[in-house]
Amino acid sequence: MGSKERIQRLKEDTRANILDAALQIVKEEGWQALSMRKIADKIEYTAPIIYEYFFNKDAILLELTRQGYIMLGEKIKTAKNEHTETASQLEAMWIAYWNFAFEYKEFYQLMYGVDMICCEQKKSMPEIDFLDNLFFDTIKDLMKAEEPDESVICRKYYTFWSIVHGLISINMVNKGRDEAMNQHILRDALKGIIKYIND
């Protein structure tokens, strides 16, 4: 490996270390505790070095948000590909969404602003478009109309999302019902919406 490649690898490793340190701080102390100074202390660098990689804390939040959407998109796609019947695909996708929220709680809080302010710059991320399109295409496949109106698909998507996200938020912020009860509520809601779309 040449010196140019070594320098590039070192930069990539340092960038990854900064992001890992940020996540570690959040897991230990919450999003409100995150600061450039704490990240620098965690990886034993000076704060100015952190600023060479990320302009400010918002830039770190934006990159972590992007990574969260990449992971979530992969999990949703995998869940969809494990089924052949459209209704089963859609149910599995939303269950994967639910599971992601609790397996990667810190990412989910950042991505959707649960119990915190989410990153405002995320609106134009291609990773979000990828995730939305997975759901939109599957909902479209489930609908009986030849070419369903885009606004109807959008409305169905937001019906699903508001219920699933609402349940997740309740559980993250206020500690809702036990897991067995949550699973019953989630599956009942998903089956009800899917049945409504199918009718």
SSE order, one letter for each helix or strand: HHHHHHHHH
Helical amount:
over 70%
Which fold does the CATH topology of the largest domain refer to? Tetracycline Repressor, domain 2
* Major sheet size, sense and barrel closure: none
> How many E-type strands?
0
CATH superfamily of the largest domain: Tetracycline Repressor, domain 2
> What is the class of the largest domain in the CATH system?
Mainly Alpha
Q: How many helical stretches?
A: 9
Distance between the termini: 61 Å
User: How many domains comprise the coordinates?
Assistant: 2
Radius of gyration: 20 Å
Domain HTH tetR-type: 12-72
GO molecular function, one term: DNA binding
DNA-binding region: 35-54
Organism: Pedobacter heparinus (strain ATCC 13125 / DSM 2366 / CIP 104194 / JCM 7457 / NBRC 12017 / NCIMB 9290 / NRRL B-14731 / HIM 762-3)
List the helices and strands and how they pair.
Layout: H1 3-29, H2 36-43, H3 47-53, H4 57-81, H5 86-103, H6 105-112, H7 126-142, H8 150-174, H9 179-198
Helix pairs in contact: 1-2, 2-3, 4-5, 4-6, 4-7, 5-6, 5-7, 5-8, 5-9, 7-8, 8-9
Report on the architecture of this protein.
By secondary structure, this protein is mostly helical. The protein has 2 domains: about 55 residues, Arc Repressor Mutant, subunit A (Orthogonal Bundle); about 130 residues, Orthogonal Bundle (Tetracycline Repressor, domain 2), CATH 1.10.357. About 80% of the residues lie in helices and about 0% in strands. Helix 4 runs parallel beside helix 7, helix 5 packs parallel to helix 8 and helix 7 packs across helix 8. The chain is elongated. This is Regulatory protein TetR. InterPro entries: Homeodomain-like_sf, HTH-type_Tx_Regulator, HTH_TetR, MT1864/Rv1816-like_C, Tet_transcr_reg_TetR-rel_C_sf. It holds the Pfam family TetR_C_33.
